[in-house]
Design a protein that fits this description.
single chain; alpha/beta; Rossmann fold; 7-stranded mixed sheet; 8 helices
Amino acid sequence: MGFYDDQVLPRFTNVALGKPMEPTRARVAEGLSGEVLEIGFGSGRNLPHLSPAVTRLLAVEPAAVGRRLAASRIAATPILVEFVGQDGQQLALPDASVDHVLVTWTLCTIPEVERALDETRRVLRPGGTLRFVEHGRSTNARVAQWQDRLTPIWGKLFGGCHLNRPVDKLIENAGLTLDTVRTYRMGRPEMFAFAYEGSASKQD
């Protein structure tokens, strides 16, 4: 991980995905319980939205600055937070070992996102859920074409971020069942702000 990705980008996302996104974070985290794995823990902005029913949060976060920025939020929560790795593509956890997985604005930047979602399914217990909010591929064909054109340069500027990933299809292709999914525009222009929000479950 280079200086920009490790030192600059975490500070940027801590602000850019800050206060205006808190209601969204609260919706996605609502009702979580037991052992929760968060892929892309970042600066810990989801922590205040977790219920006391969460007994332990297992955090995956590659950026050292993100982990440092999270220190005050970790100190303020009664939930045990344990860092368990830096790579969502290869989770150092046993099969069927967590109750839920939480991802917020993370799947766009994972290089091999299919592998990360396969790992998500592997570590979920039967009946466990993946809770997610992500930006991704617009359902408007013209906007999606622009996303395809802009993603290569966008990724170079923003830590490998992809504008054009079809989040719902990727989750289903990993063998998870989409229980709820809502698409909407987080802002303008749509090519940067088309959102997928919902929950998927592991059936067996």
